[in-house]
Amino acid sequence: MTFRVETPQTARRRAEAEAFDASVRRLVVRVLMLPLEALVLMAFLGALHAVAAPVVAAGYWTSLLLMLGIDLLVSVVKRFRK
């Protein structure tokens, strides 16, 4: 049985590594979910266009850019609310 005493430096390094891993995981999930979110937004705008003609139906790439803009806006608002 080995027993290691964790120094403050190794504890800090471990905490930094865990924080980095968590941020990379969040980034990967956001990037992988972006096309699905854009597809849902495109379908929603298409259905809304069928009900109300003044609403413009958007294509996939337009929806993707809209989702990027919405995600950027949400991240800025979250950052300033802290």
In short, what is this structure?
The chain is mainly alpha-helical and 82 residues long.
Structural commentary:
The chain has 82 residues and is mainly alpha-helical. The protein has one domain. The chain contains two helices and no strands. α1 crosses α2. The N and C termini lie far apart (44 Å). The model has no long low-confidence stretch (mean pLDDT 87).
Q: State the helical fraction.
A: over 70%
**Rg, Cα atoms, Å:** 21 Å
Low-confidence stretches: none
Distance between the termini: 44 Å
Q: Helix/strand-derived class?
A: mainly alpha
Strand segment tally: 0
Shape: elongated
Order of helices and strands: HH
Mean pLDDT: 87
Total of domains: 1
Major sheet description: none
Number of helices: 2
Beta-strand portion reads under 5%
Topology of this structure?
Elements: H1 8-51, H2 60-81
Question: What are the salient characteristics of this protein?
Answer:
82 residues; elongated; mainly alpha; 2 helices
